Amino acid sequence: MKEIVKCDQCHTTASFFNRHRYAGVCGACFNFNKVTPAVYAQRYQDLLHIFSEAKKRSRGKQYDCIYVARADAEDFFCVHLLVQEGLSVLVVLTNNYFLNDLAWHNFHQLVTYFDVDSVTYNPNLHTYKELVRTSLRRYNSIYYPFKAILHHFVLKIASEKAVPLVVWGQCQPLEFDGKFQKTDELRLSEWWILEHELNGVTPERFLGSGAQLEAGTARHFTFPSVSTGVNREVIFLSNFTRWDQATQNSDALDFGFEPDAPNNTFDQFENAGSSVYYQLHDLLRVLNHGFPKLAVHLAREIRFGRREKLDCQDLTKFLAYDPAPFFKDFLNTTTSGYRWFLEHRLSTVQHLIREAPEINLAKQMASPKPLQNKNIQDFVIFKKGI
To answer: 117-121 and 165-168: which strand pairing?
Structure first.
């Protein structure tokens, strides 16, 4: 694992670059501190101008914008804002096959409550699993195929339906990494996707890295031509608002959202309903970057003044992972294959694969709402109804 470098303000992880540039304060804290109410007010006016222009350009068409859904609490805040501002919204969900039945319930509750149209794309499951295997084998990541397919499909739908605006919710490089400031005019582009979503690995390079694909299927997983996005804006809502993730996500309860009870964090809302996000994916985050998502959630709460500092070096005592269901239920890996992967690829974090953490952080923090359905089924391919 990589050495943890701490921010003097939130006391969690910060890059060497940000420590040198901001005298010990991470970029996320530095940028958060400098934004005034006047800046937030101006940024929201900028957002309303974008909405107004989108409505003008969509006259005579069915939709003003596409919203890219995650099937978690963030969707409720974002769709509520868009509908409240008078936009005709098409919600687009790309199935990563990692959702459990709670996520499917919340997604259908979203489109039902707000009465919006939706499109769900289900990639070829056999091919998708092979892509996930390749991603895990080559890059210690299980999300690369999903991200590449997601961006391809969203832009494809926007082009086919002539939708002038594509809206994403949170911009992680802005909110958590501190790479940008609130006043920066951020737009999602092919460069952005390659740099911040695909870790610099082009789809062409990925598809040539040993993935065993059937003939003719590779074209469905490459990034579309940059011309697909011409005359179309792709924005992040968090670039224009005071993005208080915890508060706005908890407001989703008013719309019928069902929170999760995840391991390895106290946040019941972000990526609620994922079978892997706080399990194997988070374990790989610790392996690749040296810290879990819990560190990010703690930094957020400290930044907003809702928690005291907690030494990031000690976070491992709150962690306990069980990656076995991913290998058994999703990849259909043999027991010997799973053991090989643990010994040869996860050896440095294998001590975190255990039944329970030393300290259960979630139980120390008040839960906004108990999990109603305690018999959650993971890796649900598709499910309808609320």
So the answer is: unpaired
pLDDT, one tens digit per residue, over 46-92 is 999 999 999 999 998 999 999 999 999 999 999 999 999 999 999 99
Question: What dihedral angle (degrees, nearest 10) is formed by the CA atoms of 295, 296, 301, 304?
Answer: 140
Contact call for residues 293 and 286 (beta carbons, < 8 A)? no
What is the value of pTM for the model shown?
0.93
Distances (CA, A) of 103 to 3, 257, 305: 34, 10, 30
Return the ∠ at Cα 180 (arms to 90 and 2), rounded to 5°.
105
**Rounded-to-integer distance, Cα 119 and Cα 148, Å:** 18
The two tokens of residue 6 are 């701490």
Question: Where exactly are the structural domains of the chain?
Answer: 35-259
Half-sphere exposure of 347 (CA within 13 A, CB side): 4
Distance, in Å, from the CA atom of 72 to the CA atom of 313, rounded to the nearest integer, reads 29
- pLDDT of 367 higher than 90: no
Cα distances from 8 to residues 12, 18, 254, 305, 315, in angstroms, run 8, 11, 36, 15, 17
CATH code of domain 35-259: 3.40.50.620
